[in-house]
Amino acid sequence: MTENILEVKNLVKRFDEKVVHRDISFFLKTGETIGLLGNSGTGKSVLLRSLIGLEQIEGGEILFHQQRIDHLSEQQLYPIRTKISYSFQNAALFDSISVYENIAYPLFEHSRLTEDEIKVKVRNILKTVNLEQAIDLMPSDLSGGMQKRVGLARSMVLSPEIMLYDEPTAGLDPVNIEMVLDIMNRFKKQGLSGILVTHDIPAAKKICDRILILKDGMIGFTGTVEEFENSKDPFVQSFLGQ
Amino acid sequence: MMIGHIEKNLKILGELVMLSKDFFYCMFTRPFYWGRLFEQIIQLGVGSLSITIVIGIVTGLVMTLQFGYGLAKFGGTLYVPAIVSLSLMRELAPIFTSLLIAGRIGSGISAEIGAMNVTQQIDAIRALGTNPIRVLVVPRVLSTVLALPLLTTLSAFMGIIGGFSIAYAEFAMPPGFYINKVLSTVQFTDVFGAMFKTAFFGFNIAIIACYRGFQTKEGTKGVGEATTWVVVTTSIIILVSDFFLSKLLILLFD
Question: What is the ipTM of this complex?
Answer without folding.
Answer: 0.91
